[in-house]
Amino acid sequence: MGFFAFFGSMMIAGVVAFLSEKWGWTHNGILPSLLIALGAVFVLFMVRSTFGLSLGSPGFDAAVGSAAALILIPTEYAANRRKRNRRDR
Questions:
Q1: Closest to 30 measured CA to CA, from 39, 21, 42
Q2: Which has the closest alpha carbon to 41: 74, 8, 65, 72?
Q3: Phi and psi dihedrals of 23, rounded to 5?
């Protein structure tokens, strides 16, 4: 059962990452967003497996964790990259 929960969580993270890029919530590119979301879900799944801490079902953990990581982690990096590109022109 854990095998299916893990890969289901990864699929949900991929969908959240793709949709966040498509809808314009993040501006990192699809591949970086996928890596960020998958990494967050992997960490949350390991925390859930190791310590038994979770927000709910594995799918809910995946959706919340990947969205939070996409919003929090790369925002400053992407803003700095855009500023640097404007200065170079």
A1: 21
A2: 65
A3: -85, -5
| CB-count burial class (<10 Å; 0-12, 13-18, 19+) for 12 | buried
The two tokens of residue 36 are 């960020």
User: How long, in residues, is the chain?
Assistant: 89
Phi, psi of 73, deg, nearest 5: -70, -60
Structure tokens at 9: 């969580």
- Tell me the pLDDT tens digit for each residue of 20-54: 999 988 878 888 899 999 999 999 999 988 998 88
Q: Give pLDDT tens digits for 66-85.
A: 999 988 876 666 667 767 76
